[in-house]
Amino acid sequence: MNELSQRLRLQSGEKVSDSKPLGHWLGSYSAHIAVGPQRELIQQLADAIELLAAVLSSGVGLRDAFSWVANRCTSQIKTEIAWLVDSIGVGDSITQSLFEYEREQKHPALRELALKLALSDQLGTQVTSQLISLATALRGEAITEFRKLGAKKETYLLMPLVFLVLPITVLFALVPSVQFLQLSSI
């Protein structure tokens, strides 16, 4: 069974004898967003994917699009894309480089990006809309994680209110009342 048909069967959810289902490999993005550098990677990856989609929709080839995006990205995304550009530059085919990158990558979003690009290159299909939907999904996951983080921080912000402000307010209300009661008893 060739690699393309095996990956297509994996994507449809079928079991293949020598590999695991695609859902196992992709996992959820939220598990990887929680870590600080991973959160930054996801934010930059969504921007890089949209930039790649724009470059590809303008008619530039995949190899040149990767080079163009790698020159404009920073940090960890630049190293990830630069590895692909170097691999393609040595003479490997784009599809094989993407499949190899997908196998070695641990991050599910980068794996999905490489798999989509490899399959679109091998099948000759348009990938722009898929890349935009992937970037939108990544941003949605990042927003969900930020909301969860915000809910935790909100609870921490209530701690000083409950343990400092509220007791002091109660003291300010009780002390004058106690003093008034003591004066009236005399």
Please give a structural write-up.
This protein is mainly α and 186 residues long. It has one domain (3-148). The chain is 81% helix and 0% strand. It is built from 9 helices and no strands. Helix 5 (62-72) runs antiparallel to helix 6 and helix 7 packs antiparallel against helix 8 (108-123).
Name some characteristics of this structure.
186 residues; 81% helix
Instruction: Summarize model confidence as the mean pLDDT.
Output: 77
Question: Which secondary-structure class do the elements indicate?
Answer: mainly alpha
What is the count of β-strands? 0
Q: Count helical runs.
A: 9
Order of helices and strands: HHHHHHHHH
Task: Summarize the entry for a quick read.
By secondary structure, the protein is mainly α. It has 9 helices and no strands.
